[in-house]
Amino acid sequence: EPFVADEYIERLAWRTPGGGSRGGEAFDPKRLLEEFVNHIQELQVMDERIQRKVEKLEQQCQKEAKEFAKKVQELQKSNQVAFQHFQELDEHISYVATKVCHLGDQLEGVNTPRQRAVEAQKLMKYFNEFLDGELKSDVFTNSEKIKEAADIIQKLHLIAQELPFDRFSEVKSKIASKYHDLECQLIQEFTSAQRRGEISRMREVAAVLLHFKGYSHCVDVYIKQCQEGAFLRNDVFEDAAILCQRVNKQVGEVFSNPETVLAKLIQNIFEVKLQSYVKDQLEEHRKSDAEQYLKNLYDLYTRTTNLSSKLMEFNLGTDKQTFLSKLIKSIFISYLENYIEVEIGYLKSRSAMILQRYYDSKNHQKRSIGTGGIQDLKERIRQRTNLPLGPSIDTHGETFLSQEVVVNLLQETKQAFERCHRLSDPSDLPKNAFRIFSMLVEFLCTEHIDYALETGLAGIPSSDSKNANLYFLDVVHQANTIFHLFDKQFNDHLMPLISSSPKLSECLQKKKDIIEQMEVKLDMGIDRTLNCMIGQMKHILAAEQKKTDFKPEDENNVLIQYTNACVKVGGYVRKQVEKIRNSMDGKNVDTVLMELGVRFHRLIYEHLQQYSYSCMGGMLAICDVAEYRKCAKDFKIALVLQLFDTLHALCNLLVVAPDNLKQVCSGEQLANLDKNILHSFVQLRVDYRSARLARHFS
Predict the structure, then answer these.
(1) Is 254 exposed, middle or buried (0-12, 13-18, 19+ CB in 10 A)?
(2) Rounded to whole angstroms, how far apart are CA atoms 538 and 569?
(3) What is the pLDDT of residues 28-68, one digit of tens each?
(4) What is the CATH number for 592?
(5) Local structure of 613: helix, strand or coil
(6) Which of 2, 71, 310, 528 would you label with 567, given CA atoms 20 to 30 Å apart?
(7) How many angstroms separate the first and last alpha carbons of the chain?
(8) How many domains are there within the chain?
(9) Rounded CA gap, 486 and 494, in Å?
(10) What count of other Cβ atoms lies within 10 Å of the Cβ of residue 208?
C-alpha cells in the first residue's frame, strides 16, 4: 500500500507506552520523544544500509550492460558474414536454375516434335491398316482397349475429313464406319453401366464420348433411362420433383457439363410428360364444363409454377428463371391467351344461374325495371317529388335479398380474382380484374341489390293507406349487411390486384357511383316509409281520438290517465323506433330517428290544435303529451326530446289560471317562442272568449 507518513507516526505513537490515552494511561511526552529519536536513528541506519545495496546493484547492472553490448556487437558481425554467404548462395542457385530451365526448354523442344512424330507414325500405321482393309492392331481387336481405340479413331476421323474424296473415298468410308461402330459401342457401354449403377464407368465412357458427335445421343439415352419407372404415381409433379432431385445428385459425378444435362432433362419432362398431362386434363372439360376447366387450369398452373420454384434451387445455367418461364409458357400459352374470356363467360352464366335459382325458389317472376327515356323521366320525377309512380306492389314481406345468394356470388368472384391473379399476364392483370369486378357490380349490385330496392320502393304503400305493412326497413337492413360484404371483398381481393395501376381510380369511381345510386334509393324508400309511419299514426288518431276526450261532459268524473289514442300511438311509435334501430347502424340510426321524431312532433302538434280544451281536458292533453314525451326519450335524440318538452310546456297554457298566463309565457321554455304560437294554444281553451282571459293574455 502507498506510504502515508501521518498514519505511520500515529501507529508508532499508539504502540509506545504513554504515547496515547488508551485505558486511562497518562500521556508521557518524554517517553514518546525518546521513542521517536530512537526510531529516527533506526530509520537512518536502515536508509544507509539500503543505499549501499542500491549502489552495489547499480555497479553490477552497469557491468552487465557493457558485457551485453559487447556480445551484441559480436553477433552483428557474425550476422553480416552469414548474410554475405547467403547472397553468394542465392546467386549460385539462380544461375543453376537458369541453366536447368534452359536445358528443360531445349529438351522440350526436342521431345515435343519427337512425340508428335511418334504419334503421327502410329496414326500413319493405323491409317495404313484402313488402307489395306485389314485391322491387325491389338487396340482395334481387343474390346478392353475401346478407350484407346476411340481416341485413335476420333483423330483419324478428323484427318480423313481433310483428305480429297476422289482418292481416299474408300478409306474415308471405312474410318467413318469404324467411327460409327465405336460410337455405338460406347453408347451401349454407357447404357449398360447406367443400368448397373456403375457411376465411375459412366463417367469414364461419357468423358470419351465428349469428343464424338454422338455425345448428345448419350445424354438423350441417360435422360430416357432416368425416367424409366419414375412416373408411376398419380402425382406427376411430385414425381418430377423427386426425379430431378435424384438426378441432380448424380449428374455432376457423370458428366463434365452437369447443368446442361439437368436442364435438358427438365426440358424433356416439361415438353413431354407435363404437356401431355396438362392437355389430357384440360381438353376433356374445355368445351363442356367451364367451371371444371377453370379449376383444373388454375390447379395445374399453380402446381407447375410450384414445381418451377423447387427446380430454381438447382444449377441450370446462367438465366434459369427465364428458362423455366419459357417452359411453363410453352405448356399453357394456348390456354392463357383466352383465359379471361372463358372466366368472364363462366362468371356471367354462373351468376345469372344463382340469381335465377333464388327467384325460382321464391316463385317470383323478375320484373323488368327498364331503361330509356320514359324510365329516366320517371326516376327524375320520383327523386325530386318523392311520389310513387305506378301501382304499389304487394311483396308479402319478401325483401328479395338473400345473404346466401350474396355469399355464393362473392365466393365465385373471389375464386375468379384468385385465378385472375395467377393466370393473367402482369400487364393484363389490372384490366382483367376490372372486368371481373364489373361482373360483380352487374349481378350483385344491379341485378340483385338494386332490383330489391326498386321492388321495395314499389312495395311501399301510400301514406294514406290503412294498416299498411312496412317491409322496406328490412330491405335496408339486408342491403346494409350485403354492402359491408361487398366492400370487404373490394378491399381484400380487388385492391391488391389494381393498387399500382390506373384502373384503381376507375374501380373506385365505379364503386362510388353504385354507392350513390343505392343511397338515393335507400333515402327515398326511408323517406316514404317514414311518411307511411306518420300516415298510420294519423289513422290511429283519427279513429281513436274523440272530441269529448278533451271536453268531457262531466268534468268531475274523468277516470283515465291518458286517452286511448295516445296509448295506441305510443305503442306503434315504440315498435317503429325499435325496428329502425335493428335495421340500421352507425350515424344512420340517429339521422332517421331524428327525422321520424321531428315528423312525429309535427303530427302531434297539429293534432292537438284541432280540439278545444276544458280545464280537465287540458290536464288530459298534458298527460297525453307526457306519454308522447316518454316515447321521445326512446329516440335518444336531444332535439326530439327538446321539441316534446316545449310542446308539454305549451299544453300548460291550456290549464293555467288566467292571472298566471303572462308569467308562464315568459318562462324558460316558452320565452323564445313566437307570440302567435303561444296565442294559438291559448285560443284552444273553452274559456278563451271570456273578457278576463283575453284581457290577461293581451
Answers:
(1) buried
(2) 9
(3) 788 888 888 888 998 899 999 999 999 999 999 999 999 99
(4) 1.20.58
(5) strand
(6) 528
(7) 114
(8) 3
(9) 11
(10) 22
CB 608 within 8 A of CB 651: yes
DSSP single-letter state for residue 368: P
Measure CA 167 to chain center: 77
- Domain range for 113 is 7-132
578/563 Cα distance (integer angstroms) = 23
User: In this structure, are residues 293 and 305 in contact, taking their beta carbons and an 8 Å threshold?
Assistant: no
Grid cell locating 179:
467411327
Q: Same domain, yes or no, for 53 and 194? A: no
pLDDT tens sequence across 631-689: 999 999 999 999 999 999 988 888 888 878 888 888 777 878 888 888 888 888 888 77
Q: Which amino acid would we find at residue 389?
A: L
Residue type, 184: C
- Residues 650-667 as b/e (b if ≥16 CB within 10 A, e otherwise) read bbbbbbbebeebeebbee
Spatial CA neighbour of 269 closest among 224, 234, 305: 224
Residues 153 and 122 in one domain: no
Return phi, psi of residue 12, to 5°.
-65, -45
The label of the residue with cell 425416367 reads 227
Q: d(Cα 389, Cα 383) in Å, to the nearest integer?
A: 11
Q: Which residue has the cell 539462380?
A: 94
Rg from Cα positions in the chain: 56
Please state, in angstroms and rounded to a whole number, the distance separating the CA atoms of residues 314 and 258.
Answer: 10
* 3-state secondary structure string across 616-655: HHHHHHHHHHHHHHHHHHHHCCHHHHHHHHHHHHHHHHHC
